[in-house]
Amino acid sequence: QQQVKQSPQSLIVQKGGISIINCAYENTAFDYFPWYQQFPGKGPALLIAIRPDVSEKKEGRFTISFNKSAKQFSLHIMDSQPGDSATYFCAASKETSGSRLTFGEGTQLTVNP
Amino acid sequence: NAGVMQNPRHLVRRRGQEARLRCSPMKGHSHVYWYRQLPEEGLKFMVYLQKENIIDESGMPKERFSAEFPKEGPSILRIQQVVRGDSAAYFCASSRFYGQGTDTQYFGPGTRLTVL
Predict the structure, then answer these.
(1) What 3-state class would DSSP assign to B86?
(2) Does A5 reach chain B within 8 Å, measured CB to CB?
(3) B69 vs A23: CA distance, rounded Å
(4) Pair B19, B78: CB distance under 8 Å
């Protein structure tokens, strides 16, 4: 019930291409879905987040698509750049429980020049 | 405004020793979360604290692990009698409040614990 499944485990994209990472959750009580970016040796940094009252949110080159009925959400990185190479984690939380985050397993993205 | 601070950044302990990890939340933040990241895995929730209170410790092992967030000073994650399986990166995150709109958790740089 608390799991968040993330795919793919790793992704290689050419510069300028679109990177797509998918997540699925089980607990319908989740109401906050952030994506975090992590570089080696660093802590996760919030990239973009969405709530289930909207189906899409865009910030610059990053877009979250959310499908409430399918319990799935995805991150799209447009015009991917080598500097985007990092590990990306999706997460979910229930605000009423103090917002503890349940993370996906992570996707290691490599953008080739 | 300084971010979440954690120290030490790297900690090496021998089996059976104690490890103390410290976390200073962002200014104005009164909620602290600890997560553990094992090699090649995602982050797993351990414990959620507010000042002087443990709110949710459902992710923390029952033995050897404890956490506190005193009225003054940083939050401390304490691991007694460490074993090799405790080797991991431990991340602290802080937030301002919850249940009132977006409650972003800001993460520190982590403490990488190695148990020899």
Answers:
(1) helix
(2) no
(3) 33
(4) yes
The Cα–Cα gap between A78 and A15 comes to 10
Q: Which of B89, B95, B96 shows the shortest CA–CA distance to B115? A: B89
Among residues B79, B61, B60, B77, the alpha carbon closest in space to that of B69 is found at B77
Neighbours of A1 (CB within 10 A): 9
Residue entry with tokens 């485990």:
A9
Using the predicted structure, report yes or no on whether residue A10 has a pLDDT greater than 60. yes
Find residues 71-110 of chain B whose CB sits inside 8 Å of chain A. Answer: 91, 93, 95, 98-99, 102-110
| Partner B, chain A 11-50, Cβ-Cβ below 8 Å | 32, 34, 36, 41-46, 49
Q: What is the mean pLDDT of residues A16-24?
A: 97
Instruction: Please tell me which residue of chain A has the smallest CA distance to B108.
Output: A43
Q: Which pLDDT band, with edges at 50, 70 and 90, does A110 fall under?
A: very high
User: Which tokens hold the place of A46?
Assistant: 């919030």
- Scan for tokens 């608390």, then name that residue: A2
* B32 sits in which H/E element: strand B31-37
Residue of B18, B22, B19, B20 whose CA lies nearest to B7: B22
* pLDDT number for residue B1: 53
Mean pLDDT split into 10-residue runs, chain B, 116 residues? 89 98 92 91 91 91 95 95 96 78 81 96
